[in-house]
Write a structure and sequence with these properties.
The protein has 345 residues and is mostly helical. It has three domains: 65 residues, Endolytic murein transglycosylase (Dna Ligase, domain 1, 2-Layer Sandwich); 82 residues, Dna Ligase, domain 1 (2-Layer Sandwich); 140 residues, no CATH class. It has 13 helices and six strands. The strands form three sheets. It has a two-stranded antiparallel sheet with strand order 1-2. A two-stranded antiparallel sheet has the order 3-4. A two-stranded antiparallel sheet has the order 5-6. α5 runs antiparallel to α6 and α10 runs parallel beside α12.
Length: 345
């Protein structure tokens, strides 16, 4: 071998040696950069990705790629395969953005960082209104939720031997998983109810009266709750119609819901009183029926429940709510009419 050939051989050997190190290092660096850098730098709105139990890594990647949340499905698959993450992906619904790195996405999947929504259920909402809030926040479908609220077998498993979960869903601020099982939502709200009322001697009629109080007090007149409670108790004691608009509105909503379940139509809740509701033939119509309605008509907070158990000691039988929100009470019908003439001229 001549000298020039030997020099060329040495240069080639040096190049091969360099390539043996640089090519793997380049590949490793490329994979590492892909793994830990965001897929996209301009802001991208997060998308919901639902992973069902039994989904393969390929199926998960297909969902991500279809929504343009990853730009290289093969590399994403390679990372999941060599890291072993593919065996630990948890089922659930996740918020995923293209601004996240593959490592961040796998971290969510492996640690079950599912999508959640924070919702506030104000005092005085009925199950139909709660269903609307849950559906709006994509926590669960309104019809699925209402179905479980009337599911007697499920309610019995919760030790609620009643026709409905109405009255047992405590108003509060909750953090629920997106696409939750409606039974889990009912259980959590019932647990909060049990926690709040555990020291009270509470019966079902108290819950019904509390639901009427919270509706009549409209959530803004807390100081009037025990007085409203006294009116309801006083009327019940002398077998007088309690004549409450909110029970008639509930009767109308219940009727619409039952028809919608039979026809599969859209259910739209009513919130304002109409004169026609006074004639609805329903056990919830307290203008036509004596006594209390068969179930609560809303879900009350602890103040309304305590007011139902411990009404003020009065002889009031009537009250009106003025335009300013004040509640005026009266002992006689003459005084009630006088108040109506004075405040509603």
């Amino acid at each position: 071998m001549c000298y020039s050939d030997y020099q060329a051989y040495k240069r080639l050997k040096r190049i091969v040696l360099i390539l043996q190190f640089t090519i793997p290092l380049t590949i490793i660096a490329f994979v590492a950069l892909y793994t830990f850098l965001p897929q996209s730098y301009p802001y991208k709105k997060p998308e919901l990705i639902a992973i069902t139990r039994g989904d393969s890594l390929g199926e998960v990647i297909h969902k991500l790629y279809n929504k343009k949340l990853i730009n290289n499905p093969y590399l994403f698959y390679f990372i999941g395969f060599i890291s072993g993450y593919s065996r630990y992906i948890e089922a659930g619904t996740y918020y995923i953005s293209a601004n996240e790195s593959p490592a961040s996405i796998y971290y969510k999947f492996v640690n079950g960082k599912v999508a959640t929504a924070k919702v506030t259920i104000p005092p005085g909402l009925n199950i139909f209104q709660i269903a609307g809030i849950l559906a709006k926040n994509r926590i669960t479908g309104s019809r699925a939720f209402l179905t479980e609220c009337f599911n007697k077998k499920f309610l019995l498993s919760l030790k609620i031997d009643k026709k409905t979960a109405e009255g047992f869903l405590y108003p509060n601020t909750y953090i629920f998983k997106i696409h939750s099982n409606p039974q889990n939502i009912i259980k959590e709200m019932l647990n909060e109810f049990n926690l709040k009322t555990k020291n009270l001697k509470l019966n079902y009629n108290d819950l019904i009266i509390a639901s009427i109080i919270i509706k009549e007090a409209d959530g803004n007149r807390k100081n009037s709750m025990r007085l409203i409670s006294s009116v309801i108790h006083n009327r019940l004691n002398i077998n007088m119609h309690i004549d409450v608009d909110s029970t008639s509105i509930y009767a109308q909503n219940l009727s619409i819901y039952k028809k919608s379940t039979q026809t599969g139509g859209v259910f739209k809740i009513k919130s304002n009183m109409k004169r026609a509701y006074l004639k609805i033939k329903s056990p919830y119509n307290t203008y036509l029926n004596y006594g209390l309605p068969p179930t609560p008509i809303a879900n009350s907070d602890i103040r309304a429940i305590k007011a139902a158990i411990d009404p003020a000691k009065t002889r009031y039988l009537y009250y009106i709510s003025t335009k300013s929100g004040k509640i005026i009470f009266a002992k006689t019908l003459n005084k009630q009419n006088e108040n109506i003439g004075r405040y509603f001229k």
